[in-house]
Amino acid sequence: MRKLLKGWGGGAGSAPEHGNPASAASVDPARRLAIFDEIERAPGLWFWATDAEGRLAYISASGCTRLGVTAAECIGQPFAGLFETDPESPGESSERPLQFLLRSHGKLADMILRLVPARAAQGTAPSWWTVSGQPCHDDAGTFIGHRGTARDVTVEYRRKVEDSRAAEFDSLTGLANRHRMSRRLEQVLAAYRPAGRTCGLLLLDLDRFKQVNDTLGHPAGDELLRQVAQRLRKAIGDRGEIGRLGGDEFEVFLPDVDDRGALGDLATRIIALLSQPYFVEGDRAVIGASVGMAIAPFDGQDREALVRSADLALYAAKNGGRGQYRFFSADLRDEKEERRLLEDDLRVAVERGEIALLYQPVVRTADHAVVGFEALMRWEHSERGTLLPEIFIPIAEESGLIHGLGAWALAQACADATAWPQNLRVSVNVSPAQFADRDFPTLVADALSASGLAADRLELELTEAIFLADAEVTDAAFRALKALGVRLALDDFGTGFSSLSTLRTAPFDKLKVDRSFVEACTLRDQNGARIIAAIIGLADALGMETVVEGVEAFDQFDLVTARGARFIQGFLYSEPLPQADVLARMESEVLRIAPDGPKRHRPERRSVYRRIGVIHEDHRYEALLRDLSATGARIDGLVGVPEGTGLVLDLGGGQLAIGTVIRSDQAMIGVEFELPLVGDGAGGLVTRHRVAPHVVAAATRNAAGTVPKFTEVSPTRRG
Ligand code: C2E
Ligand code: MG
Ligand code: MG
Questions:
Q1: Element housing 34 (H / E)
Q2: Which residues, chain by chain, have CB under 5 Å from ion ligand 3?
Q3: What is the b/e burial string over 660-683, where b = at least 16 CB atoms within 10 angstroms of the residue's CB?
Q4: Among 435, 549, 555, which is best to mutate for testing ligand 1, by the most ligand atoms less than 8 A from CB?
Q5: Fewer CB atoms inside 10 Å of the end CB: C or N, the chain?
Q6: Cβ–ligand 1 contact at 489 (below 6 Å)
Q7: Euclidean distance between CA atoms 429 and 206, whole angstroms
């Protein structure tokens, strides 16, 4: 022992009783040894020594006990083999590994190491140790090994791990917190960048969470967030990492994902999953979710840029009417600013007479007689042309302008309807925020008395979102409106979270079946038609009328009438019309409209008018995209392209679509895509995958000096 202690430098927590080693020389060697023996017997601290090869040469008896071995069994074994670096260690250790320090004759300064579990006595919990030690040399200066201490720090270490868990994880949901998500995403992106690997980022924001929190209370809000976290875990599984950034904001990143089709599907699934009703503390709550998505490296190479892109996409998703997802695209950069400008303009739009109501007929299918009209708002913006409600109603709702706008619409619609035959009703859409206003019934009464319209000719169209407001206010409004004698319709039925029990108790006279079911029933989706039949049956049983919205083609008409639809509102009969046109059509008391439209419903084909690149062999042409659908495109500007020619369309932003020419008529060619495009969440279409910008740039450069095979003509010059 005396020999082993030679050169002992005193590690942490092991200062000898008599202070610095210099004074130790004056103490009687026997007494000194006795003191060290006592220290060595204390639990939780042991001494060790290695030979020049890093093998254990000495270990305190207490150390052997802790290891569950006899000295004979471990002496001569590699010292580094006793410990391992803890995989769960909080914070990244920049320290050199033990083995390296032993080999390089370095100093060991308070290294925190975990005892290799197999080494620990059977059944003992894992333990952590701080290991310190000094390299020692003999009188000739030759390295003879290390001497040092090891101290049990399990309790302190556990606490540190817990603290760092609290610093990295959200205590409410157990998900990673903002801090951890930032760090992890940064790490992943940095590791992926050199290899050009991709990473999808989803930002999620709950819709109407604040309302639930306010009405049901904070404990219920907390419980709801926990359930949201569970559902997210279910949706993502181990494909990515999920975090809660705070409030009702969540983040998910998915390494090695760049397929926008798959991401769009995932976002749809998440939104559907989170929109299912929740049961919290005996109450039923319904919220929605919006998702913004960006993909590295296309939409941002580092964390900051990628998050900014996903954030803009989320912003657009929320503005698009909630319950939606959006991919980032360069156009979104301006949307935030656009919206602010629109809000300013909207403040003065009514005064300037820029807001108008159009009227769309509701028609009885049996005899094609018009039974009423729905008032639909339009904004004739001085610079932007006609704006649809989906653009400006959300702005009005968020800014509070909806109250003035809604009051105007109600008064105007009542006044216009007095000029129609007595048997025709007018339907007016009411935003949830208006309905939640205690003075709303008075507003309705005023509109009726000012115009002189009979109360039963006015129908208010409400959506299921009204049930999220204070139940007392909602019930009082229902009573007051029923007392006035106006009719109530439940709009967009089937798109929200309709509970059959609300239907039973709320005094609706009519259900409006949402357009999405009609669209679905001609897309070879038998469920669409079945749901329509079920809704109509349900409404019949509850004594309510039904109107089926959005019928555009005869095949849809046949399908929905076969399923029991008696009233239809859709383009097949008429688009929304200005009041002047409505009056012009009203020569007779019974107004009839003959249905008119395509035989079969075709999924929306978007007319576009955009310059794109067309690549054939190694030449790049410029052409005009006239028409784009998921499966193909119509292109203007190339003459002499035979059918069957393979082309690549450069749709911009790294989107290359490979296709074959299936029609060629002078300068107009039809191209069928090899891989269908996917939805961008905003009704637009995008390619599933993208190629990095530098690849496109290189291809464009290479194509510069090549000889064209086809003639390029300018569509604009041809008129
Ligand atoms: P909504 O109340 O469900 O109105 C029906 C929407 O479907 C209208 O869109 C109408 O033009 C459209 N539509 C009707 N038939 C067809 C069809 O056959 N095919 C297609 N593709 N569409 C059809 P619009 O006018 O753009 O209004 C959108 C939404 O904006 C309305 O949905 C309503 O929720 C809201 N809105 C409109 N006017 C007002 C208003 O004055 N106040 C409030 N609060 N909301 C309004
Ligand atoms: Mg409506
Ligand atoms: Mg509707």
A1: helix 29-41
A2: 491-492, 549
A3: ebeebeebbbbbebeeebbbbbbe
A4: 549
A5: C
A6: no
A7: 25
User: What are the structural domains of the chain?
Assistant: 4-160 (3.30.450.20), 169-333 (3.30.70.270), 357-584 (3.20.20.450), 606-712 (2.40.10)
Cα–Cα distance between 258 and 295 in angstroms, integer? Answer: 6
Q: Which of 374, 426, 429 has the most ligand 1 atoms within 8 A of CB, as the residue to mutate?
A: 429
- 160 φ/ψ angles, rounded to the nearest 5 degrees: -65, -40
| Ligand 1 pocket residue status of 595, Cβ below 6 Å | no
Burial of 118 (C-beta count, 10 Å sphere; 0-12/13-18/19+):
exposed
Nearest residue (CA) to ligand 1, atom 15? 570
Ligand 1: atom nearest CA of 388 is: 26
Please, are residues 653 and 661 in contact by the beta-carbon 8 Å criterion?
no
For ligand 1, whether the C-beta of 549 sits within 6 Å is: yes
CA distances from 371 to 360, 363, 546, 597 (A): 11, 6, 13, 20
Residue nearest to atom 21 of ligand 1 (CA): 550
Which residue, among 125, 113, 120, has the nearest Cα to 153 in the 3D structure?
Answer: 113
Which is nearest to 151 in space by CA: 131, 134, 133?
131
Whose C-alpha lies nearest to ligand 1, atom 35?
389
State mean pLDDT over 35-48: 84
Cβ–ligand 1 distance for 492 under 6 Å, the answer yes
**Proximal ligand: closest to the CA of 512:** 3
Q: How far apart are CA 237 and CA 246, in angstroms?
A: 21
pLDDT score of 467? 81
Burial of 175 (0-12, 13-18, 19+ CB in 10 A): buried
Cα–Cα distance measured from residue 410 to residue 431, given in angstroms and rounded to the nearest whole number: 12
Cβ–Cβ < 8 Å for 514, 493: yes
Amino acid in position 525:
D
Whose C-alpha lies nearest to ligand 1, atom 12?
550
Q: Which of 358, 306, 301, 345 is nearest to 327 (CA)?
A: 306
The pair of three-digit structure tokens given for residue 441, joined into one six-digit string:
């019934």
251 lines ligand 1 (CB under 6 A): no
Contact present, 64 and 49 (Cβ < 8 Å):
no
What is the CA(422)–ligand 3 centre distance, in A? 24
Report the predicted TM-score, pTM, of the whole model to 2 decimal places: 0.56
576 lines ligand 1 (CB under 6 A): yes
Helix (H, G, I), strand (E, B) or coil at 691: coil
* Tens-place pLDDT, residues 648-688: 999 888 899 999 999 998 889 999 999 999 988 877 789 99
Of the candidates 443, 442, 385, the residue with the CA atom closest to the CA atom of residue 409: 443
